[in-house]
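Re: that chain you flagged

S.,

Sorry for the slow reply, it's been a week of failed gels. I finally had a moment to sit down with the sequence you sent. For the record, here it is as I used it:
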Amino acid sequence: MLKKLLKYDLRYMFKLWWIGAVTVIGLAIIGGFCINNIMHPESYNTFFVVFSGIFLIPTVLGISAFSMYPLIVSFIRMYKNFFSDEGYLTFTLPVKLTTLINSKLISTVILNISSYFVVLLSIFLMIIGASNNFLEDIGEISYFFKDIFEYCGIYSLFYIVEIIAILILATVFSILFTFCCITFGCIITKKAKVIASIGIYYAVNSVVSFLSQIFITFVSPGIVACINDFPEGNTKLSVLLFGLVAITFIAIFCGLLYLLQYYMLERKLNLA
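Prediction finished late last night. Pasting the C-alpha cells below so you have them in one place:
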C-alpha cells in the first residue's frame, strides 16, 4: 500500500515541478551570460550591460522561489490530505497511520533532493556562463579538492558519507518539523487552520534559529578549540567522531518529531 500512496503523492508533488526545474535551468544559463556581461562591460554596449543586470533579478528570484517549492507543495499536500474535507477519505483507507506518514515523508524527501540537485545544477551553469576561462577555473577547484583529499587520506570517504547522512537527516528533520507545525496548528484551531499553521511554523522556526545562533556563537568555538587541542594524528579522527555525534543527535530529534507527529494525528483521530 505504501507504493500506491507514494505513487499518488509523487505524482501530485512533481506535477508542476518539471516546469519550474526547466524554467530555473533556462534562467540560470542566461543569467550566467548576464553575469559575464556585467563583469566585462568593456566588451558590450551600455544598454546590454544594464539589461543584463535587470535580467539577473528574475534569475535570482526564480532560483529562490524554486528552492521554496518543496516546502509549499508539501505543506499543501499535508493539509489537503489530512485536515481538509479530503482528510475524511484519507483516514478511511485501510492503511496504518505510520504508512500515511511515511508516504508523505519519503515523497517530500525525494522532492527536496531533486530540487537540491536542480538548484546546484543551476548555480553550476551560471558559473560556466559567467566564466571566461571555465576549464582553468575548474582546474583550480579540482586542485583545491585534491589537496583536501590528500590531507584527509582514507578519512575523506568517511567524511563524504557523514556529510551525505547529515544532509539527508537535516532534510528529514525539516520536513517533520513542518508536518508537526501543520498538525499542531490544525488541531488547536477550528477556523483559519492554514494561517495558524503558518504562524506556528514561523514562530517556532524563529525560536529554533535563535537557539541555533546562540549555539554557533558560544558553543562552536569551544568545539573547534577542543578539536584543535587533539594531537595532530588524532585531529582527523576527532572530526570523524564529531560528525558521528552530530548524526546521532539529528537522528534522535528526527525520531522525536516523528513520534510527536504520530501522537498528534492519532489524538486527532480519537477526538474526531
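What I noticed first: The CA atoms of residues 10 and 168 lie 18 Å apart.

Talk soon,
D.
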